[in-house]
Amino acid sequence: MRWRLAVIVVGWLGLLAVGFGALQRFDSTPGSIAAAEPRPELRAETYRLVMFVHPHCPCGRAALDELKEIVRTAGPRLTVEVAFVGPPTDRELPESWAAAERIPGVTVRWADGREARAAGARTSGHVVLYDPTGAVRFRGGITISRGHRGPNPGRTAVQAALLDEVPQLSTAPVFGCPLEDSSEGEGPE
Amino acid sequence: MTAVDADRTLAARTDELFHEQFSAVARRTDRLFAALLVFQWVAGIAIAYWLTPLTWAGRDSWPHPHLLAAVFLGALATSLPLVLVWLRPGEPVTRHVIAVAQMLFAALLIDLTGGRIETHFHIFGSLTFLAFYRDWRVLLTGTVVTAIDHLLRGYVWPESIYGTAAAVEWRWLEHAGWVLFIDFFLIRACVQGVREMRAIADRQARLEAARDSIERTVEERTADLRESEERFRNSMENAAIGMALVAPDGRWLQVNAAVCELLGYTATELLARTFQDVTFPDDLESDLDQVRRVLAGEIRKYEMEKRYVCKDGRVVWALLNVTLVRDRAGGPLHFISQIQDMTERKEAEAARRASEERFRKLVEHTTDGIFLTDARTTVILDVNRRACESLGYTRDELIGLTVSDIDVDYPREVLDRLFPAIVGGDVQTLYGRHKKKDGSLFPVEVRPCLCESNGQPAVVSIVRDITERRRAEEELRAAAEAAEAASRLKGEFLANMSHEIRTPMNGIIGMTELALATDLTPGQREYLELVRSSGEALLVVINDVLDFSKIEAGKLDLDPIDFSLRDTLGDAMKALALKAEDKGIELACHIPSDVPDGLVGDPGRLRQIVNNLVGNAIKFTERGEVVLRARVETVAGNEPVIRFSVSDTGIGIPAAKLGAVFKPFEQADGSTTRKYGGTGLGLSISTRLVGLMGGKIWVESELGKGSTFHFTAKFGTAISPSRFVDPPPVIGLAGRPVLIVDDNDTNLRILAEMTAGWGMVVTTVRSGEAALAALDAEAQAGRPFPIVLLDAMMPGMDGFEVARQVQARAELAGMVVMMLSSGGPSDADKCRKSGIDLYLMKPVKQSDLRRAIELTLGARAVGPIGPSVIRPPAQAPTVRPLDILLAEDNAVNQKLAVSLLTKAGHTVTVAGNGRIAVDLSADKAFDVILMDIQMPVMDGFEATALIRGREAGGPRTSIIALTAHAMKGDRERCLAGGMDGYVTKPIRVADLTAEILRLRPDAAAPAPELQGEEPKAEPGPTPGEPAPDRAAALEVVGGDVDLLRELVDLFLEDCPRLIGDLRAAIEASDATAVKRAAHTLKGALQNFGAADVAGTAQQLETMGRANDLAGAAPLSVTLERRLAALAPALRAWAV
Predict the structure, then answer these.
(1) Are B301 and B323 in contact (CB under 8 A)?
(2) Cystine design at B264: which of B260, B310, B653, B1031 (Cβ 3.0–4.6 Å)?
């Protein structure tokens, strides 16, 4: 009886371990990033950071929180745009729109799929940092995993670039929902 | 239990309580966590749904993996703890699994909230909740799970738990430090909690031990109390007397069964009442007064006799004892009442008082004087009023006197001797004389008995003045002597009357018989016959009257001897047979074989009863039959009780008269005496005789159909019964066929029973025609009957005709024909002429019939014999001529006796008195001396004594007493006086002959030839014509030729008139007249032995009796023709 109970307990623990493993695996699996580097922008007075966000992705809140931290440390040297990617026919303001607008100095706007694709963004939370010269200094995610806040290599690289330092990384994995569905070009425009 | 044992028990109980409490806490906490886990699971789902409901790909979306993890991983983490809480609550494994699940839930929630540091507080909360178990090991499990989780995550994916991917080591230590910090306090709290819990358990165990001890003590005290109460209740309930607890205000508080039983109430009913409710009103005030005194403290208890009123209204007496019980403060609590039923005692006292009062009145008012005296001093202690009155003293004067002072016959010295006997109860009655105060004396009867007075022995004497009784006794004695003298005189008168009446009757009858023996004219003969029959009738009347007188005088006694019942009854019936035949009725006697024959009794008196009953039956029967039956009623030892029944088909007796017929001088109808004659004493005498025989007599009768008289009689068994057994058979009868022919069913049955009892094979038929048919049938079958018993008189073909038909048939030759008839002597001749072998008078005796059958069949067995006749046994025996001395003083009797004796061939010498007889007998030796008893000069007794004295040692002369005395004892007196025999007057030749033969068997004359007697040769009639039988006719008239001649003359003279009467009666169809005329003719013709012609007349008589005259006319013509043929022969006799 006792060993049977022990087997049951062990089995139960095993199933829990598998479950937690699967959850762990999901959370730590990043989205895809376009292989080609986006085109440089025109020269500007400040650094310009554009974040592409899926209007309904729950991981967007963690990304906006990290963006908010970057904005706080960057000061006026940085111009930030948050682009919610979606087709013009379906542009109801998402829940996170207000959160984005509450970040000081951030421009919130809609973007279509072509712009996102042009910027190399395929996953929600993807940021592209342009320096005043219009060169891309960083592209990728600024969260450590899905929906997780806290220090992460992407945010550190952006903050370093904004300090005119050479960031250790020019890109970082993006954790979020795909901006477009599997049929290329049929994502939110 | 020792102190060590108590400590061990206490420790064990403490452990038990602790574990119970610990387990209860664990189960309670299990249930808390079960709810918490479910809540967390739902909350996790809600959080995931809120934060990450969907995951998107462009416009596509689906449930977010975090939501799925919250649902399924949360369900998995919750499932096993719930199962264990359900199946194994309170067990360590359950709480450890719960700890694991709870900590994993913390990890899940942290993960779902994106590693928010705030979520880590869930871990501390969980540990705190786990501390509810008070099991520090559970905290360790939770801590270990958390540590492992953090360690693994720290190494593999630190940002999931620490929010950053850097500084893995210190963050792990920081988290572990916080957890251990919490654990330190929680574990300390758990240990402290367990310690307190154990302390509580210890206190509870001690409390329990103390409570158990108290409870045991309480139980013991309670049991003692209950036992005490039970004893009290039982004692009270089962007390023999009533017991009750009564409140001061009178309410019954408790009552026992005796009280309920006494008052008739149930306990419930009584408890709803007060004692005042059931107290008899007259006794209530006194009872309440006592109660008040007790309550006031004047008395502590009281006792009284009082009455209660029962539920049913009865009033009962009781002895009441009441005690008051007070409380500690002295206040009254209740009364204890003891109620003892004394109703019976009160009733007994009342009864005793009533009895004493009655006794006192009885003593005071009795007509006898009553004295109470001291048993030792005889001093009078008390007297009643009567004693004072009889003696003339006052009561005070008598008290103090002694018995000797008032009884002159019992002086002190006599009383001193007598009193011990009185005290001992040996003396019951004393007689003495009391002396009154005035000195006069009177006789007294004293009945003393011992008693007690004030504890001393005393004598109560009932004294009766017997002056009047003495006088009455004297008068009674004188009256008794007078009555005795009168009785003696009556006896003597009866004896004298018997003598004085019989003596002249002797002369009348005897001389009439002598006169009838002389030549007389028919008229003279008729007159003399009337004289004789009247004399005979008068003698019967006189005998009845004398018997009745003897009954009245108490002098009728029985004379028991050995006798044959069948012979006695047979002889009695034969004597009545002719009378029955005259009336044309059947007479039968039926005695079954089981009735004993040799008995001890008085055959004469038995015959007298039978004669009376059968004679009456014949007298009152006009047609049909009279049957005497005897059977054994009971047998007690050697004393059989025989029941006799005489049934007839006569006129019967009205029911109202059945009882009267047994009373003297009464017959069923007053006119009966006039019509049938008789004194009316016969049945009364028979009743008395039956009573003497130890039996009873009664009658059953139906008017018009007949009567049956029954009587029983007790007999002894003869000492030598072999005397009465039939002689050995000449031949065996068993198996021999016999045909019995009789139209009368009773006779047929009797004869059939008799012959069947001898083993014969019996065939019965009821007519002549049937008899011939049966005979022919058996003869043709080769089994001819060897013997046939024929009834002479039968309707249609009579017995004689059957016999003639048998004679005429060659195939029936050799068969014995036996005729049974009551037709009188004339039938004998007819038997001879009809070829009949044997002739028996009915009713036939069983012994006669058997002897006759054996004789006939035996004779046939040795050779053919001629026609034979067995005459009726009534045939008188004869005596050879004897030399007789007659001692008789009466001249008429002398002449009568001499005539009868000389006619019988004897030589007679007459002596006028006893003296002469003595002298004559001295001179000459006589064969017999007939000695009258009452004679002048010397009576018969004295003469006999002298003769016997003279004969002493020599030859003895037979002396037969002649006496008109018919009193009981005469015979004994005569025999005691030396005489040998005894004959009563009037002298009957038959009686005298029988007595002589008894004394002198050698005097018997040679017996007459009965067999082979050939009829005397007479000029025979023409064959085929009827002829008279002169021999038979002479036999009828006793050989008196002259008388026969006169009879013939009378018949020839009267015959035309009778024929004329017959003819007229037939023409007038007057059956009675036909019967009467034919009967007269038949009787006359039978006298002349003209059986054939008489038979024809008989047929006509039968027709008349049957009231069937069909065929009478031609038969009368035949009769006339035959009479005409008979007349010449008769005229020849008259010449």
Answers:
(1) yes
(2) B310
Residue B727: the pLDDT is 55
The angle, 0 to 180 degrees and rounded to 10, between the axes of the packed helices B682-692 and B522-553 is 40
Q: What stretches of B310-424 show up as alpha helix (H) in DSSP?
A: 343-365, 385-391, 395-398, 403-406, 412-423
Residues 6+ apart with CB under 8 A from B867: B831, B832, B835, B836, B837
ipTM higher than the 0.90 cut: no
Interface test mutation site (partner B, options A15, A18, A23, A65, max chain B beta carbons within 10 A): A23
Question: For A96-110, B341-355, B901-915, B1077-1091, which range has the lowest pLDDT when averaged over its residues?
Answer: B1077-1091
Nearest Cα neighbor of B517 from B1042, B79, B10 is B1042
Q: Which pLDDT band holds residue B1010 (cuts at 50, 70, 90)?
A: very low
Q: Are B943 and B931 in contact (CB under 8 A)?
A: yes
B117 has a chain A CB within 8 A of its CB: no
B1085 CB burial (10 A radius; 0-12, 13-18, 19+) = buried
**A30 shares contact with chain B (CB less than 8 Å):** no
Does this model's pTM top 0.80? My answer is: no
Is the confidence at residue B204, as pLDDT, over 50? yes
Asked if B234 has any chain A CB less than 8 Å from its own CB, the reply is no
pLDDT of residue B731: 59
Element (H, E) at B448: strand B441-453
What mean pLDDT, rounded, does chain B reach? Answer: 82
* CA gap B75, B78 in Å, rounded: 5
**pLDDT value for B986:** 63
pLDDT tens digits, B560-612 = 888 888 888 888 887 788 778 778 888 888 888 888 888 998 888 898 899 88
pLDDT at B286 over 90: yes
CA-nearest residue to A56 within chain B is B56
Contact indicator for A126, A120 with CB cutoff of 8 Å? yes
Query: Parallel, antiparallel, or unpaired for β B883-887 and B907-911?
Result: parallel
Q: Please answer yes or no on whether A54 and B77 come within 8 Å at the CB atom.
A: no
Q: Which chain A residues have a beta carbon less than 8 Å from that of B56?
A: 54, 56-57, 124, 177-178
Q: Residue A186 pLDDT > 50, yes or no? A: no
Give B112-165 pLDDT, tens digit per residue: 887 777 788 888 899 999 999 999 999 999 988 888 888 887 777 766 666 555
Strands A126-130 and A47-53: antiparallel
Instruction: Write out the two tokens for B357.
Output: 């009062």
Sign of the C-alpha dihedral computed for residues B48, B50, B55 and B61 taken in this order: positive
B79 touches chain A (CB under 8 A): yes
A149/B93 touch (CB, cutoff 8 Å), yes or no: no
